[in-house]
Structures are given as C-alpha cells and as structure tokens.
Amino acid sequence: MKQEKNYLTRHHYLNSSRWALDGKLLPKNFNLKMLLELPLDVIAEFLKVMPTGQEANHQLLAPIEPHQEVWASGVTYAHSRDAREIETEIKNIYQRVYEAKRPELFFKAAGWRTVGHKSPVRIRKDTSWNVPEPELVLVLNSFGEIVGYTVGNDVSSRDIEGENPLYLPQAKSYNGSCAIGPGIVILNADELRELSIEMKITRNNEKVFQGSTSTKRMKRSFEDLVRYLFRELTFPHGSLLMTGTGIVPPDEFTLHPGDLVQIKIGSLSLENVIDND
C-alpha cells in the first residue's frame, strides 16, 4: 500500500494502544478524541508539529477510540436499494427511503466493539444469509466537519432484515459485525468524491465474488449525511460514519466461516476473515 501523508494508525502497544503518524509512533498521550476536538483548519497544522518516534511495527487495531461511535447510512446507492427490495416482501419501502429527503441513519457499533485490519469479523449463528458491505467511512470532528476517511465493512444479515425492516438493528449490530481500518487518511472531503471501491471474497484460496463501484455513484452527498447525523446528536470527541454500499453479492451468495474479505478504497485496503464462533 502506498504510504499516505497524514496517515494515522492505531497499534497494540504494551497491553494498551498507541497511535502512529505516517508509520512512526506518536506521543503516548495522543489519541483520536484529542484530534477530533479540533477544527478542520487546525488539524493538519497540529499533526505537522507532533513529535514522532520509532517505527510502528506493532499489531494494527481499529482506528477508533473505545468510547467513540460508528454510525452508518443505508440505501445511498441504487444497487443497495434494489437488493434490499428483493430481500423483503414489504415492497417499495427502500425505494421511498432512496428518494426521501431524510437519509437512513443508524448506530452500528461502539469503538470497543469494532475490529480492525486482519482481525476476524463474524456472521450471526442464527442466520443463513450474510454478506459483507464495503463502505467508505467518513471521519468527523466534533464540529461535524469531514476530516478524512477509512475503510469499513458493515457485515449484515440479509435474511433478518428481509423478514422485517424493523429488525435492522439485529441484522446490523452484533459482536464482530463492524470492521474499520487499516488506518485513517486525513484529507479534504473533495478528494473523496470519485474514489474507487473494490471488494473481493476468497474461499479456500479461490475467488467467489468480486465487485467494484465508485463514490460518485452515491445518491446523497457526504455533507447531507453528516448534516442529518449531527442534526440532533452531539459528538464531543468526533465520530465515524459509514456511507452505504454500492456492491452487493448475488442473492444466492452467503458468507462462510473462513472466507477472506478484501476491501480497497482509494489507497487503503481492509482485510478480514469470517468467523461465527
């Protein structure tokens, strides 16, 4: 992977965690909450003067603090709308969401429940139709400004939500259902408008699915999603927001334990193996 400038990663370090900037460890007292309390126009300058130390060769963790939150958006791509209409007998509900002024937003995971690059993600034991959902994840400061991005996998149980759309929290939020990583690229929101998104799923060393899309195919703007998220919620230490998926495997596909899911967005690649323990 190309090394980005202003690239933040979080690592396992001496029974705790430690952040790194551009591959080098930051001071022990640095954390993402501290950074996301700053205005957008200050963040780059703040990082520029941060002292760095040794190479960060330690295990990667999800680039989020334990008590921060991951939220998610639904039906932001036409492909997602069509797939969700197929999976449910309650017709036109997702078409109405797709066309509505108000977006679909839901809580996905707390930071402590979120897994990182090369950590296992899970499928529920009480389901039979499960898929990964590759998504661009916006990194937001406390002012509701977009300060960067990372990669997300919004693992979902299609049969649970298909039975009744009101079951969405159970289909979306459970142990191991949220992966983000490998790190955060700090950049301007305009650099995210036409990012490529790719996903490949490998089973027993053989490719079983591959798909691609682009953020330019989104129905809604990033700013619109963020504006609604912050309308009646405050995030004093910032937040992360998944922006929906435009890649959906065919209806006959479901994840199996041992599958390897690889998601690439821009220059970042997130990999996770599927588990159901």
Describe this structure in words.
Keywords: Hydrolase, Metal-binding. Pfam families: FAA_hydrolase (PF01557). With 277 residues, the chain is an alpha+beta fold. It has one domain (69-275): Alpha-Beta Complex (Fumarylacetoacetate hydrolase, domain 2). 18% of the residues lie in helices and 35% in strands. The chain contains seven helices and 17 strands. Strands 1, 2, 3, 4, 5, 6, 9, 10, 12 and 15 form a ten-stranded mixed beta sheet that branches. A five-stranded mixed beta sheet has the order 7-17-16-13-14, with no helix packed on it. The chain has a two-stranded antiparallel ribbon with strand order 8-11.
Short structural description:
This protein is α+β, with helices and mostly antiparallel strands and 277 residues long.
Level of helix content? 10-25%
CATH architecture: Alpha-Beta Complex
CATH topology: Fumarylacetoacetate hydrolase, domain 2
How far apart are the first and last residues' alpha carbons, in Å? Answer: 31 Å
The overall strand count is 17
Shape: globular
Return the structural class.
alpha+beta
Estimate what percentage of residues fall within beta strands. 25-35%
Number of domains: 1
Report Rg.
Answer: 18 Å
What's the pLDDT, averaged over the residues? 94
How is this fold's topology laid out?
Elements: E1 7-13, E2 16-21, E3 24-25, H1 32-36, H2 40-48, E4 60-61, E5 69-74, H3 78-87, H4 93-99, E6 104-110, E7 121-122, E8 130-131, E9 134-140, E10 146-154, E11 156-157, H5 158-163, H6 168-172, E12 178-186, E13 196-203, E14 206-214, H7 222-229, E15 239-242, E16 260-265, E17 268-275
Parallel strand pairs: 5-15, 7-17
Antiparallel strand pairs: 1-2, 1-4, 1-12, 2-3, 5-6, 8-11, 9-10, 9-15, 10-12, 13-14, 13-16, 16-17
Helix pairs in contact: 3-4
